[in-house]
Amino acid sequence: MEIRFRFGRGEELKFISHLDILRLFERAFKRAGIQVAHSEGFNPRPRIVFAQPMPLGLTSEGEFADVELDGYIDTAGFIQRMNSSLPAGINVIEAKVKNRKSNLMGIIDAAHYRISVKAVNMPDIGYAVSSTVNSSEIYVIKKTKSGEKEVDIRPFIYELSAEKDGHTGIFNVILGAGQDNNIRPELFIEGVSKASNTPFSILAMHRIMLYCSKKKADPAPLTAGKVWITPMDDSLL
Amino acid sequence: MKVTLYDSMLMSVEKPARYTGGEWNMAVKNPEKADVRFAFCFPDIYEVGMSHLGMKILYHVLNRRDDTYCERVFAPWVDMERLMREKGIPLFALETKEPVKNFDIVGFTLQYEMSYTNVLNMLDLAGIPLLSEERDNSHPFVCAGGPCACNPEPLADFIDFFVIGEGEEVILEIIDLYKEWKNSDTNRNRMGFLEKVSSVDGVYVPSLYKVSYNDDFTVSEIKPRFAGAPEIIRKRIIKNLNEADFPEEIIVPFIGTVHDRIMLELFRGCIRGCRFCQAGFIYRPVREKNPETLYKQAEGSINKTGYEEISLVSLSTSDYSSLKEFTDDLIKLTEQKKVNLSLPSLRVDNFSLDLMKKAQKVRKSGLTFAPEAGTQRLRNVINKGITEEDIVKSAELAFNGGWSSIKLYFMIGLPTETMDDIEGIAQLLQKIMDVYKKIPKDKRPKGFQPTVSAACFVPKPFTPFQWFGQDTQKMLFEKQDFLRKKLREVSKSIIFNWHDARLSFLEAVLARGDRRLGKVLLNAWRKGCRFDGWNEHFDYDSWMKAFSEENIDPSFYANRTREFSEKLPWDHIDMGVSKKFLERECKRAYEEKVTTNCRTRCSNCGINSFIGGICGI
């Protein structure tokens, strides 16, 4: 059987890498006595797929993974057993049985973040939002495996609002995510800094949710107001 | 009070999870309810320290007590150290993040001489005075144990007390004594505790001993200044390993460590008696766990950790009496649990290759051979009971079994060694290459590429070579060059690794050093020496400057051959093997005579009477 589950990561574990998370889950499954199916062949690997890696320093309540199991377990038992086998700082929030074949990594289109920032002179945070939204393009340097390139991130800032809490500004933003147009929170903050002419630095970043777009075939960039569905949506399972 | 680790700090250092703790199976306790807080310090980085079985055992033994909270402390890597010093953050323990300075006892494990400057650096980062004599009641007691503690003298100025031998029983006695001292209403006196603890078997309080020297700087006498302290400190051993506490719920790190797997200890000690090997002498006698105990521990560890690999650990796994029966059962377990079984330190023969094939369905890891010396004559000198025929035959078996990655370990600078012996290494490689080429192309593995590693021999205390003057660096360099040339003549495909002779020289100094080295260590540390075992941080010139400023000739310790009659700096420590036996073995070495292993015939090393009975061999 296959299970899709959502999990979160707290402050305690925000400094471990994506690879460490993979290993952590493999070991937690073993401790929980939940037998994960393995790939065939020369180097059998456990069949676990994660939607999106978490960058170092990110906390989250909206991470997803698919796991293929040998044998059957009900989802309530799955959640309970996993949570008693996971270290403090990581927990399974919900789980559903998956019946459809779909590549979890391929269906992610956007991510919802809460990003706390500071600036030497904290401006009217509303100005940072409006100058970003009103820019027709925002070019920043994106580091990729093959080197650096300049990209326009504006089309992938789908929704943006902000509030001020004392000297801290908090951006509430939905950014492009997934395999094609992934905008990391750091890159977004660089863009906002550029658009509003205010050098912001990140205090904390939290991922609230990963989203899929309903019309996968729609080539046009999504716009604000679009209804998102989560990978847990029954239509995807 | 916890230290504050800012996100910005952790985001800017390499592998921040080295400093954040919280791993599965970490001991979580209310520190206020612990009478004794013990900081177990490993003087190297997290990934190295977390690979150490001894720490796991003692952490477990201590934390089983409700009255004690043992936490882990590792040396912060240089990037973190810089930030800690900048921001005034003291050395802290991973479990509670509380400063080490507030603990009751700070214990270091000494696995390697080149970590001594890290001990000093960690004490300094903790804000604990480096010198034992400068500490008062506001400071923790600083103790140390581990294999290097068998010659504690170079660290005598810095350590309040040493624990000699195996720690899991004596540490509990020390905790009891400490609790009693701490809870006593009378005016607590630091020296009072040290005097008391000096009467515990296996405990050595260096400040209670006076060392006198002859005019030539050799030791003339080591005497207790305090009547209650023993003249000879005898190592502690665990008599029955089946009854000894062994941790199953070991900590599972988040980040990869050097040995990131379950380590199942089969036995302690070794029957072989290779004359260069300190472990082979100081861990005597051989004590095996029975297969039932081991199976139970294997199963428990797998279930409680979720580890994907388990490794059998001992000094010579092939010598475990019930190896076949045990591995037959164990393989069934590891298959069922989808756990990989790793088998280091196995002699390569039909049985072990078969076992490895069964155990490692996945990938064929490399095979390791340790002939240690290139000629039969020299192998006899070092009592490495392995013949050329054995080695060549094993290699042939390995090729036929499909292994192509072969590593061979040698030492250069062994006693009586000549250039012929060095050339012997190349000749041995030639024979192995010939064997490979003789196998038809379709039957042998592709891409055979042997690796030859040549360490520089470092004479160690409590071995038959403890009197031997190490080869000078010049000699070692020449031998390395010669070997490199000869290996290239055999084949350009041989990968040749060698050790930095300067580091081996310093290791030899510290291994057989005396108390006079304390000031050199302090001086070298002040010059910035730390992480000496790490290539990128080893600063030989600063060390040499420290020696010359303190007017100490390092070659006195490294390169000088001692007389048998000389009083050695560690003569007041009794590791169970007698000096007479070591002397006998040394003479036999020079006569190129092999001594049989303990199971074939007892050689009267002394351990037998030490434990008051017959070795369980």
Can you describe this structure?
The complex is a heterodimer of chains A (237) and B (617). With 237 residues, chain A is α+β, with helices and mostly antiparallel strands. Chain A contains five helices and ten strands; from the N terminus they run E-H-E-E-H-E-H-E-H-E-E-E-E-H-E. Chain A has helices at residues 18-32, 75-83, 104-107, 125-134, 185-196; strands at residues 2-9, 48-50, 58-68, 90-98, 110-119, 139-144, 147-152, 157-165, 168-176, 200-211. In chain A, strands 1, 2, 3, 4, 5, 8, 9 and 10 form an eight-stranded mixed beta sheet that branches. A two-stranded antiparallel sheet of chain A has the order 6-7. Chain A is elongated, with a radius of gyration of 19 Å. Chain A starts with a strand and ends in a 26-residue tail after the last strand. The model of chain A is unreliable at 216-222 (pLDDT under 50). Helices cover 35% and strands 13% of the residues of chain B. Chain B has a six-stranded mixed beta sheet, with helices on one face. Chain B has a four-stranded parallel beta sheet with strand order 15-16-17-18, covered by helices on one side. Chain B has a three-stranded parallel beta sheet with strand order 10-13-14, covered by helices on one side. In chain B, helix 15 (473-490) links the parallel strand 17 and strand 18 (495-498). The model of chain B has no long low-confidence stretch (mean pLDDT 94). Chain B has 21 helices and 19 strands. Chain B folds into three domains: 7-234, Cobalamin-binding domain (Rossmann fold); 261-362 and 573-617, Transcription Regulator spoIIAA, CATH 3.30.750; 366-499, Transcription Regulator spoIIAA, CATH 3.30.750.200. Chains A and B meet through helix 1 of A and helix 1 and helix 9 of B.
